[in-house]
Specification:
The chain is an alpha/beta fold. It is built from nine helices and 13 strands. It folds into two domains: 169 residues, Rossmann fold; 101 residues, UDP-galactose 4-epimerase, domain 1 (Alpha-Beta Complex), CATH 3.90.25.10. Strand 1, helix 1 and strand 2 form a beta-alpha-beta unit. Helix 6 crosses helix 8. The longest helix has 16 residues.
Length: 300
């Protein structure tokens, strides 16, 4: 197949491009060419908001839109495309307002979420524009992604603490629930959608079960062969020293499981993520000064 992946240089989009290329597909990535490119793909160097005719003469069997955040992002790409088959948009679980009962279901009303703000609202508008223009498109709503090529300072921060034998500081009692999704499970699901065209066009995706923040940290330390010295913190804003906000959302993934049963075991997936992290010391991570804040305000 000819597959177009938007982005292709960072984490989810890069992993997706290389995964489908390894499967033998002709993968094109659309980006501005300012970063190193994934392996085995063809670069279409352009800004998605100024495409001209660069996409018009290529038929894409599938468009995997990993990097759309707004309705304008979707509109401009659609305007620039020629012929294409499937369109899969990576949306977000941030489209659900926090006032809903958990777990969130695809049929629940979407709306502004007070924590995620414009990010979630813009994803809602991106979905609406896509389905208005392409009723047979698909929108996938994930929780937290993890896996090889991670560039956000989430599990890599925990790995760094483990490698340095630092105690780990958790908000409150450490029981904050977190839900994850391995990037390869995303690719497997997108491949299944392209092949089988399921009737459900909006899907919550993710591991069916969540873990507590403390369980997550213990899994990450175990991936590094360590056992954490857990410390509990009160009186400090969690985002200053911990890589997740104090927000509980859980997605009902029943429809995903009907299409593609089974996801990566979290402990196995974190071990793979740790091995990638250790083998890529020069990876471009969006680090944050968590350790500095801990050392200055909590551990002293």
């Amino acid at each position: 197949m000819n597959i177009l992946v938007t982005g292709g240089t960072v984490f989810v989009s890069r992993y997706t491009a290389e995964w489908f290329a390894k499967k033998g597909h002709e993968v094109y990535v659309l980006n501005r060419g300012s970063r190193p490119q994934p392996k085995g793909v063809t670069l279409i160097k352009a800004d998605r908001h100024d495409l001209g005719s660069c996409l018009k003469d290529i038929h894409f069997d599938a468009v995997l839109d990993i990097t759309a955040y707004t309705a304008d992002d979707v509109r401009d790409l659609l305007d620039g495309l020629g012929s294409f088959g499937d369109y899969i948009l990576i949306s977000s679980s941030a489209v659900y307002p926090e006032t809903l009962l958990r777990p969130f279901k695809e049929e629940d009303p979407v709306g502004r979420n007070s924590l995620w703000g414009d990010y979630g609202w813009n994803k809602i508008k991106a979905e609406e524009l896509l389905f208005e223009r392409c009723p047979n498109a698909y929108a996938l709503r994930p929780p937290y992604f993890y896996g090889p090529m991670e560039n956000l300072y989430r599990e890599p921060f925990v790995f760094a603490c483990a490698d340095l034998d630092r105690p780990f500081y958790l908000p409150e009692d450490g029981k904050l629930p977190l839900q994850f999704y391995h990037v390869e499970d995303l690719c497997r699901l997108m491949e299944t959608i392209i092949e089988k065209h399921p009737d459900e066009h909006v899907l919550n995706v993710g591991n069916p079960t969540d873990v507590t923040a403390e369980e997550f940290v213990r899994i990450c330390y175990a991936a590094a062969g360590k056992v954490p010295d857990i410390r509990y913190v009160t009186g400090h804003e969690e985002y200053r020293y911990f890589p997740f906000r104090n927000y509980f959302y859980h997605l009902d993934t029943t429809k995903q499981e009907a299409i593609l049963p089974g996801v990566r075991d979290l402990a196995k997936g974190m071990k793979e993520a740790y091995e990638w992290y250790k083998s890529h010391p020069d990876a471009e991570l969006r680090t944050k000064p968590y350790m500095e804040y801990i050392d200055e305000h909590i551990a002293k």
